[in-house]
Amino acid sequence: MERPEFDPERDLQSGPYPRRGFTPELQQRIEERIERKARSRRLRLPFAAAAAAIAVCAVAALAQWPKGQPEHKQAQAAAPAAALTAPAERIAIGPASYHSGLLLGLRTDFQRKAGNSGPESADSSYRTLFIAPLDGRLDVAAEGKGILLPYGQTFWKIDAVSQSAGDDVYRTLIAHPANRPIPAQAIVPRSSVQVRHSERLLFAGNKYVTLEQTEAVQKGKRTLQTSRVWVKELQQVNGEMTMPADDAAARRYVGLQDLFGAGVNRADEWAIVRKPGTWVPAVASTTLDGDQESFVLNSIPLSLPDAVISHDQLCCTWADIQRIQPDAVDALSSPKKDFMAIVTPSSIYFNEVRNGQIGATPQLTINLNENEKLVMAQWATESYVDDWVKASRNYLKKP
Question: 394 CB contacts (<8 Å, ≥6 apart)?
């Protein structure tokens, strides 16, 4: 019977040979074969001798096979021989294992030029990006206009809408289920005055948001301007386009005591704002400058409850972060501690994290627009990452 051709991968996986070494029986068979060839081919003796030497070397090599060597070690030892019969296969280190995704909300502030919508004024635009592992690497799974955020078991959107009625101009934020169109809102012009009403998003969580509202009223040659700030539940964002009523029963905002209890001082006007590496509560203090009423925010030493922000911890120290990115002004770490986002004035860098160490090379870089700031950071983990990829591509768009 003809012996099958030697297959390194097949034969080496079958374990060590049961008998090892140059046995007397094997030696006798080789010598008899050599003698027969010597008698029949006297003229080719040098070649026969060479063949015998090769055979002896091959058997001797088998005798030197390491005793008790594990199978995976044997396969490694056979690798050079396999390379003689097949092209060398490139061995690559496997990609990092990511178990998190980051839904980022960004706001860009700019000056709107004068036109049909009114005189030159401050305005803002918004975009959402979902950063997730795709084929083992971090990438932008979806990006689109507006702020897409999880709310309960569904997704909602916050969109900036401009409307006008007569000489009045309203630039408002409207919250709505992501699978429904932006709801229309009626505007009733105010008699004898010209109104410019604008809203700006400072923070978006999975239930609460912070809005800044500015209203300028033109009375003759005077312009009276008022800016105020509110924390609201998502469904309180919409409604009449006027400042919240002073009547507590009719109010459309969340006071500081509503979240922190009666043990804190009452503050109706407060905000959730971003500081390097964390979200913090800040109380508004009113300022007056001629016909302009505004506010300044002062952070307070309270930790936001999980109902406001479920994850808000850094995996590494600021010294570690700035060692990797000296221009860092903010940073976010995933709950799984597998990657982090490092924010600079011009970009957001996404670096792998392993065993508490930040990878030196960014896996992804997002360029920021001028005056673009972070207003939302929502994390998905494990199986929810795939669910959010599908939802974000459905409600935003695939890049």
Answer: none
Question: What is the reported pLDDT for 116?
Answer: 58
pLDDT in the model for residue 35: 57
Q: Answer yes or no: is pLDDT of 168 > 90.
A: no
Which distant-in-sequence residues (6+ apart) come within 8 Å of 368 by Cβ? 106, 345, 346, 347, 348
Rounded Cα distance between 262 and 342, Å, is 37
pLDDT of residue 109 exceeding 60: yes
- For 161, list phi and psi in degrees, rounded to 5: -130, 135
User: Tokens for 108?
Assistant: 């860009």
Q: Is the pTM of this model over 0.90?
A: no
What was the pLDDT predicted at 248? 52
Residue 277 has pLDDT above 70, yes or no: yes
The one-letter amino acid code at 192 reads S
- Give the span between the Cα atoms of 308 and 279, in whole angstroms: 10
pLDDT 10s digits, 202-248: 999 999 999 999 999 988 888 899 999 999 999 999 865 455 555 55
Please give the residue that has the higher pLDDT: either 247 or 93: 247
In the numeric block, the tokens 């959107």 are attached to 157
pLDDT at 166: 80
pLDDT at 120 (0 to 100): 62
SS3 sequence, the chain? CCCCCCCHHHHHCCCCCCCCCCCHHHHHHHHHHHHHHHHHCHHHHHHHHHHHHHHHHHHHHHHCCCCCCCHHHHHHHHHHHHHHHCCCCCCCCCCCCCCEEEEEEEEEEEEECCECCECCEEEEEEEEEEEEEECCEEEEEEEEECEEEEECCEEEEEEEEEEEECCEEEEEEEEEECCCCCCCCCCCCCCCCEEEEEEEEEEECCCEEEEEEEEEEEECCEEEEEEEEEEEEHHHCCCCCCCCCCCHHHCCCCCHHHHHCCCCCCCCCEEEEEECCEEEEEEEEEEEECCEEEEEEEECCCCCCCCCCCCCCCCCCHHHHHHHCCCCCEEEECCCCCEEEEECCCEEEEEEEECCEECCCCCEEEECCCCEEEEEEEEEECHHHHHHHHHHHHHCCCC
